[in-house]
Structures are given as C-alpha cells and as structure tokens.
Amino acid sequence: MQIVKLVSRLLASHYRDQPQLAQSQAYAPSNIALSKYWGKRDTKLNLPITGSLSISLAKHGTQTQLKPIDDANHRIYLNHKLVEPTTPFAHKVVTWLKWVLPAGLVLEVKTYNSVPTAAGLASSASGFAALVQATNRLMGWELPDKKLSILARLGSGSACRSLWHGFVEWYVGECDDGNDSFAEPLPYVWSQLRLGLLQISTENKTVSSRQGMLHTVQTSTLYKKWPDQTTTDLRQIRSAIVAQDFEALGATAERNAMTMHATMMAAWPPLVYWKPESVATMHQVWDLRRQGIPVYLTMDAGPNIKLLFLKQDQVVLQDIFNQLQVVAPFQP
Ligand code: DP6
Fold first, then answer.
1. What SS3 class is residue 125?
2. Where do the domains of the chain lie?
3. pLDDT band at residue 212, thresholds of 50, 70 and 90?
4. pLDDT(50) > 70
5. The domain defined by 2-185 carries CATH number 3.30.230.10
C-alpha cells in the first residue's frame, strides 16, 4: 500500500486517466556503477543504504514501445518474443504497470535490449528507465526528471540512474517515503574515457542482484564495513571525474567493485558470481597494469568484466582482448 500511496502522490497534479497518444516509445541506456549500490534500507521502495555513481553505456540499452490494447492482460514482448506472464521478468513489469496505470488500461509492451538480459550487464536498469519514459509520454504526464527517476527506482534501484547519458549520481536520501532518493546527471564530459565489455558468460544467473544484496546484508560479516567504504569511494570518484584523473577513477572504481564482491564472499552460504574465466581476466588486467598500461576493471552481480581505459590505449587493448566491445560513453 505504501507504494500505491507514494505513486499517487508523485503523479498527483500530472495524473490523466486516459492515454494521450495511440502509442509511445523511449530509449534508455544501460549503466555501470563506478561506486556501487549494494544493500537496501527499504526493500519495497528500493531505498539504498548508500549513494552510488554510474556511467551510462550510450547505445547499449533498451528501446520500449507501448500501445493500449483491448485485452484483459498486459502483453509483454522481449526481443520479439512473447514473454510468459509467470516469468519473473513479466511479473516485475506487470507489477510496476499496476502501480502507475489507471485501472482498466491494458498495454502491449515491446522491449528490445541491446545488452544480454541478466548477464550482469544491467538490462533491468535500462528496461525500467525506458518503460517509465515511454509511459510518461503515452499518458502525457510530463513528469519532472526527479519523479521519473523515483518511478524508475521503484521498478529496479539502478534504473533511477539510467534516464541519462554520461555520469549519473543517485542520492541516498533520508526520508522514509524515498522522496529524496533519486538520481541526477553530473555536468562533466570526459571524451577520452572508454569502457570495454568483456562477456565471460551469457547464462542466466541463478541469484539475482536483488536476492544477492539482501542475502549479503543479512548474512555477511564484512557488510558492516561497506557503507563507509563505498561512501568514501563515491566522493573520490566524483573528485576524480572533476579533475579528469583517470588513475584515481580507475583505481577507486576497481577497489569498490572488489570490496562489494568481498562482502558477498563473506555471506553464508557464500555468494560468488565469478567464473574461472573472470579470475583469469582479472589477472590479465593486473599484468597489463604492471606493464604500464592504465586499465582497470569493474564487475556487477555476474561473471562479466567491464574495463575502464582511455582512448589512447584502445587499439592495444582490442588486440589483447579480441572479444572486447568498446563503448565511448560521451560520443553520440
Ligand atoms: C551490482 O538495481 O538490479 O549492479 O534494486 O533489487 O532491482 P534492485 O537491484 P539492481 O541492483 C544493481 C546492483 C549492481 C550495482 C549497481 O548497479 O549499482
């Protein structure tokens, strides 16, 4: 009930009980946190224990189209395939639609991901961010960004950072109703910055981020160290962005990811998303640094590795990692 009340307060003066368009669409980029969101103070409202800061993945993201239909149930397509209503994906989408749509409005939702779903490349973030924006357009709500970010957060925490390109910060907030926990873009451009996606596995993960962070908060003896550490990391990453200090950015982001994974490994039963190939790749990255190539890594709740480097090292790294998908976050 708390969510329904929150949503009606968010929509209040913007609310319309009929779609204003015959259909709508929106695109949202996926995002990778440089200082991570790992742990909630409120699991229903997706309120985080700490703030986080991300970089968006430009053309890797989600495109969503919405159309009202004359049917009893929402119809959801993911990458051209009709999704069974019983799947966790359909359940999450339908639950969110029920919170925000006028009763009786039924939609066809067509979603296309240009990132592998559930492989640690954060497709739920771009998915909810695209859904929120397409819904806002369809309904003619014209909601301000802060409210869109909160609505996206209710779908999936990290989605509140996927409404923008570039660097985005999600403020932890203090209010119990979550009205001050939303994201905003940071006004810094770093044109030489590159991300490299290394897909170690496309298998669906067995433990979602949602379950993984709850399990870690509840059982990990190391978790109590995390909030202070990640808050310090976030500050340092923000300063590194302002100063365009790549070594500081890379080192802090890598340490933040490793610390997050350490909290999971200390959970019981232990939670380890890494595959042997993930570990082998980490050693490769550390060897390259020893050889003088400034390349750093980050990882989310999955086995895949994301590299951080500068344009000047792109060619050499593409030679070494021939699967590397390079993202230039600040190029249109
Ligand atoms: C490791 O946003 O997927 O990617 O709020 O439960 O939907 P829910 O979790 P989600 O968690 C993302 C965790 C992370 C770190 C991050 O993106 O900050």
1. helix
2. 2-185, 193-327
3. very high
4. yes
5. yes
Query: Token pair for residue 174?
Result: 């203090």
What span, in angstroms and rounded, lies between the C-alpha atoms of 60 and 223? 31
| Ligand 1 geometric centre to CA of 70 (Å) | 34
Radius of gyration for the alpha carbons in the chain, expressed in angstroms and rounded: 20
Residue nearest to atom 1 of ligand 1 (CA): 300
Fold type of domain 193-327: Alpha-Beta Plaits (3.30.70)
Residue 119 has a pLDDT of 43
Q: Give the integer Cα–Cα distance in Å for 92 and 118.
A: 14
Q: Percent of the chain beyond pLDDT 70? A: 97
Q: Which mutation among 46, 209, 259 tests ligand 1's pocket best, with the greatest number of atoms within 8 A of CB?
A: 209
- Please state the pTM of the whole predicted model: 0.96
| Segment holding 296, helix H or strand E | strand 296-298
130 neighbors 111 (Cβ within 8 angstroms): yes
Q: How far is 132 from 201, CA to CA, in rounded Å?
A: 29
Q: Which of 316, 185, 164 is nearest to 241 (CA)?
A: 185
For a mutational test of ligand 1's pocket, the pick from 32, 41, 42, 158, i.e. the residue with the most ligand atoms closer than 8 A to its C-beta, is 158
**Residue whose tokens read 């014209």:** 142
Is 148:184 a contact under the CB 8 Å cutoff? no
Total Cβ atoms within 10 A of residue 223? 21
